[in-house]
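Researcher: Sit down with what I've pasted below and flag anything odd:
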Amino acid sequence: MQPYQLNPEVAPQFEMVNDFIINHLGSNVPLVEKIGHYIVESGGKRLRPLLVLLAANACQYKGDRHISLAAVIEFIHTATLLHDDVVDNSELRRGKDTANAKWGNAPSVLVGDFLYSRAFQIMVDIGSLPIMGVISNATTVIAEGEVLQLLNSRNPDTTEEAYMQVILGKTAMLFEAATEVGALLADASDKERVAMRDYGRHIGIAFQLIDDVMDYKSTAEEMGKNVGDDLAEGKPTLPLIQAMKVASEPDKKLIRKAIREGGLEDLEPIMNIVSRSGAITYTEEMAQQQADLAIKALEPLSNTSFKQTLIKLANIAANRSA
């Protein structure tokens, strides 16, 4: 079941978002449109735009601008994916060739820029300065998070605190923006807006923690990307950081070497070390803690079907396998 199917009331709105996205990919440059359609239509749960819809509805919104606002969030997310795949030299996403693998790095970066620009065009039409403020701040923080991750790459001395700072920026920030702008669009009270903002941040952290677990636990078919991509790129994610805290000295040296050098030569022994160390369980427990915090943040909201769906999504984020 796709996440949008958890709530029959929001499912038709979700389909309207999909239609809106497709209808706003038009460009006078055929390659822009071709790559835009390829990446947008390549699958994915569209969890971030769904959160916009659920947040707006949970805060009693009655208009239709949440449809275009959800598309804005998806365009920004898609732009970051295009840029990320270039930075990471990724070849597989959602089980398909990445855009940069098919068309090259330069077109991928430029189409990512196009999608960012299209998102801001749509925001102008929505016409809310507070919403523009939240999203423009989010895009800045996301860019900073990506740069920080780049600085941490190949650094085996990266701490858990530094890792958390990265995922707060590169992943959780857009989740947080998605739920906060949904509340802003609904003219929610300050208490409800903060509740939705905090919910988004915590579910975003949970989502990324599990994403990092899957690199050491899932298959390529389940993830839609190559197993060991994080290790190949020398990314010190939490499973590795925690494993190094408790591993034997030889195992610790192997992990440090793998992070410094990148590549997949030691993937199998390192996956075994991570599994034996309890680092997977540690990271999964942290993800559930974040999901619990997300659910707790929703307490100020009225008990509607949309709130219940948000609660279900928090638990799904912390317990998914794909």
Remarks:
- Strands lie at 92-93, 96-97.
- Residues 160-185 form the longest helix (26 residues).
